[in-house]
Amino acid sequence: MSPYNASKFVVNGITRSAAMEYGKHGIRINALCPGMTAPPFIETFFETSPEQAKLVEASIPLGVVAQPEDQGNATVWLCSEQTRMITGIILPVDGGVPSG
Is 4 one of the annotated active-site residues of the chain? Predict the structure, then answer.
């Protein structure tokens, strides 16, 4: 887990540093941190392994696995004018799973 967690901290640091560096050029930089997301192949796996699906869902505080649209909606929102003053954030879209 150490290399995985270290890589997450690197992304966070680069996001914040780049936001500070490029903000003066009107460029906003944010990071979307997706949690467990169920594209069609995961949905198929869960259909064939309902016990595994229940275990995964039980590990997510909101109790559901994200859909690709959940990640997309968060991305579209971050790119919208509604967030024109948001830069340098790390936005978890993970149903409340604690990150490392």
Answer: yes
Which domain CATH number covers 62? Answer: 3.40.50.720
The band of 100, judged by pLDDT with boundaries at 50, 70 and 90, is low
* Number of domains comprising the chain: 1
Residue from 4, 24, 48, 85 carrying the catalytic annotation? 4
Q: pLDDT tier at 5 (50, 70, 90 boundaries)?
A: confident
Q: Report CA 95 to chain centroid distance, whole Å.
A: 9
Q: Does residue 32 lie in a domain region?
A: yes
45 near 52, Cβ under 8 Å?
yes
Which range marks the domain in which residue 13 is found?
Answer: 2-93
